[in-house]
Predict the structure.
Amino acid sequence: MRIALKWGALIGVATYLLATVGLTLLALALFPGQPVDVNHPGIFTLSCLGIFGVLFACSAAGFFTGRESLQDGYGAVAGMVALGVYYVLGLLYTPGVKPGAALDTGSAGPGGAQSVFAQFVFAASSALIVFGIAALMGWLGGRPGANQGHRRRASTAKPK
């Protein structure tokens, strides 16, 4: 389990630095004076690249975990840890966005205030879907990683 936490945290931090900070700074450099939102086609393209980068990162965390632990199930844990670290770091700071803006709930919209139960159901179902996808990607990366780890150990074992 410690291996999954290690690779999940390492990949989560690297993904945050590349997919959030790096791509946002690249968007600001390529499109100066444009607001950082998805209404601009160039910034939208970089945002899509960031989404695919996060999916790849969850799979990579699973691969490295599976290769080291020889268990593909830990890859799912590593994928979820990587996404969790990436999410928390993104809440703390994103270039071009007011700090803590993701925590600001704002208004409930035209329907009025939502009940606490409705907000809980929304948050729980969203987290279940997103972390489920991260676990699946981690497991899909963990399978070939565990197979490669078994082959590596078998090739380095001394024949009798």
User: Anything to note?
Assistant: The chain has a mean pLDDT of 85. Residues 2-102+111-156 form one domain.
